[in-house]
Description:
Layout (H helix, E strand, L loop, with lengths): L1 E7 L5 H14 L4 E6 L7 H4 L7 H7 L12 E2 L5 E4 L10 H14 L9 E6 L19 E6 L3 H17 L6 E7 L6 H11 L4 E5 L4 H7 L4 H4 L4 H17 L13 H9 L41 H9 L6 E5 L2 H18 L13 E3 L6 H4 L2 H13 L4 E6 L1 H5 L4 H11 L4 E5 L3 H4 L2 H13 L9 E8 L12 H6 L5 E5 L6 H5 L4 E6 L4 H14 L3 E2 L7 H15 L2 H26 L3 E6 L6 H9 L3 E7 L21 E2 L4 H11 L3 E4 L10 E4 L8 H13 L13
Amino acid sequence: MIQIAIYGKGGIGKSTASANISYSLADKGRKVLQIGCDPKHDSTRALLQGREQTTVLNYIRGTPPYERRLEDIVLDGVKGIKCVEAGGPEPGIGCAGRGILSTFDTLKRLGLEDMEFDVKIYDVLGDVVCGGFAVPLRNEYADGVYLVTSGEFMSIYAANNILKGIKNFDKGVPRVAGVILNCRGVENEHETVKRFADAVELPLVACIPRSRLFAEAEAAGRTVMEMFPGSDVAKELEKIADDIIGIMEGRSSPYDSRPLDDAQMEQVAKGEPVKKNEIIETPGSGGGSCRGCSGAPRAKVTTEKNVVASCATAGAVYGCSTIIDSVVIIHGPRSCAHIMSSGRNLSEIRRGGGKTGAGLQSTRIVSTDMDDTISVFGGAGLLEEKIRDEILEGHKNIFVVTSCVSGIIGDNAIDVVNAISNEHPDVYFRVVEADGNILGEWEAGFVESASALLDMVDGSVEPRPDTVNILAERYFFREETENEVLNLFRPYGVGVNCRFMYETSMDSVRNFRLGRSSYIIDKDRSSTRIAKLVGDKLGVPVEMEPLPIGMREYRRFSEKMGREQGMEGRAAEIAAREEARYLAEIGRIRPRLEGKRVLIEDRFTQNIDWLVDMVADLGMEIVALGIGPVHRWKEMRPEPGRLPPGVPVKRDYLLGDLLSDVEEHSPDVVLTDSGLMELDNVRCATYYRPAPGIDSLLGLGRKIGDLMCVPVTDGWRDIR
């Protein structure tokens, strides 16, 4: 398979040439894909014969990541040619070059690389104006580049700039296929273009004459190759297709990029001979081999390429920083890194973090500290410097997470890391491309990091019958002890192997398959997606019922463990003992709370069955339940029959609704998971999803009971 990029000045006829070349190749029996990389999205019009094409960027904008399908944006054209249009943002808004990056990422994620083609044609917008439109020039996308030009100086100038762009990416690998002259009828056109082609040491592959046949074919929504196959125009276009086939079959080879400097271009414009000994070397275009030819192990570095409360970069950083013997480099602004690490600090301090002896996770997060100049000059140098600093600090496991800024300007973190990995084969590198403008929200980045970590698992490890894994364990602001999850399994003779996405080591993740099965902490969307990843990637069984919170769930859990471990009688004794302990503590708290009226506001937690059960066990009366707008789960809780009859349940619950219900129902206490709250004349308590088992839940019960022992309004407020 060969990949061809068609470049040239805007309006020079690249799209027309590309469509005709694709048709000719398909007519010769080749399987062809054509990707239009122009916001005008008219590259494949003649191949689709008037049918409407959904652009990739419009598709991304209107379709959630989990509903995207490759067949929606890859259409069948004439002769079986597959057609894709990148599209672009609204004029004057956003970055069209970034759109090209997003297009290629989306196509890769949806599996385009799994489709078999003989030739891929990339029809690219105008000049090489930014990193986005230079994507098809990179080694992984273009084996050969054709320059379309006319005899006009600005067209030739654009072609020379494209050669400079190729020089920046070729890494010493010849990839320029030749020059295509698309005649405009200017004086001495053929001689001028031939003089330029000779100066840059490239062949003039074809000379397409100026012809009315193009207008006739365009009006009919067809290609010239289809409507006028025997014409002089078709014969020239067929030369290009034959040249591509010659490269494919090894009868010819691409050439090195040898752009001209300004003085030489002036000689071209004046019609003077060009002095070849003045051909320049573009800064930063030094030698070296391409990634495919380098000696670095290719498995070391891979790409993980969907109004949000937090971005995908933050989610990926959270996931990667759970590896205690690693460092996470955020390739982005210092402000982003500060927000992400500060959030981790707060949650860990609340929890009394660092108890594993590995220190706070936030101390394992560093940044390349991008500033506003990076959007002009690029950030690859900053990333390389930061990686080398962390290697000097002794880090052997390095994760690089990209941000929106690095994505928008087109920094290629993979290339930077690959180059350094060649020098440091003893260091493990992983790049997670999680910039929010591609993936969007926190959850998408978190799941991407989980997928990256699961790629580290050693498939040869055999499971142990008395060991399990815990999946997607996250604490945020939850108060708990380190051993609650361990204590949940310990009475049944079961140990915990890997606490995945919590605090674990690289070796623990690599030995993930030691666990005979895996348990999820919660049944929220990200946990279920990670569970599916574990099943799909590793084939390890996952128990989809979350670990228990409260006695009702604990009884079911105990029965299951008894069956699995062949100790039903012992499991019944353990459950009875835990229930007696639970009831004894509830009995101590209940006198303070029995008969008290409670209003529950739940925005984030989704499953609050455990809270409803505990409130009932404490003898409290639920007067109203508000489900906040953050809830977007298909499975709404509490489950039917859990609430007492007559309790009003409101969806899309806002602050105004809460204030109205407080006034109407006069509750003794408001329980909320939306953060610390203070309301006039009513006690408020914040809850978070407790740790599995009953201890954390009983701690919440004691907290509510203690709250009833203090005045509704602090006494100092009444002092005058």
